[in-house]
Amino acid sequence: MKMKMKKCKSCGEYTLKGKCPYCGGEVGVVYPAKFSPEDKYGKYRRMLKRQIMKEGLDERDFHKRNKGC
Ligand SMILES: [Zn+2]
């Protein structure tokens, strides 16, 4: 993902262009971490899953452990 999401300062619409396509207003960059925190967690989940696979653990076993007992 190389393109930066931008938000219009006057109407609040999101765009990838350097200028608002809706009202022609000025746009400001929106930082990805701010509007898609789920992506961040998805990355962690994938990392965790890879780690589990590397260690040769059963995923169900991991969930059981994660619940705590
Ligand atoms: Zn606008």
Helix fraction, binned, reads: 40-55%
In round numbers, the mean pLDDT is 79
Radius of gyration: 20 Å
Are there runs of 5+ residues with pLDDT below 50, and where?
none
How many domains would you count in the coordinates? Answer: 2
What small molecules does the structure contain? Answer: zinc ion
Q: How many H/I helical runs?
A: 3
Class inferred from helices and paired strands: alpha+beta
- CATH top level of the largest domain is Mainly Beta
Give an account of the 3D structure.
It is rod-shaped, with a radius of gyration of 20 Å. The protein contains 3 helices and 3 strands. It has helices spanning 32-35, 37-55, 59-67, and strands at 6-8, 14-15, 27-29. The protein is α+β, with helices and mostly antiparallel strands. It has 2 domains: 1-35, Single Sheet (Rubrerythrin, domain 2); 36-69, no CATH class. The model has no long low-confidence stretch (mean pLDDT 79). Strands 2-1-3 form a 3-stranded antiparallel β-sheet, with no helix packed on it. Zinc ion (ZN) is lined by residues 8, 10-11, 13, 20, 22-23, 25.
Short summary:
The chain has 69 residues and is α+β, with helices and mostly antiparallel strands. 46% of the residues lie in helices and 12% in strands.
Provide tags for this entry.
69 residues; alpha+beta; Rubrerythrin, domain 2; 2 domains; 3 helices; binds zinc ion
Structural topology:
Elements: E1 6-8, E2 14-15, E3 27-29, H1 32-35, H2 37-55, H3 59-67
Antiparallel strand pairs: 1-2, 1-3
Bound molecules: zinc ion.
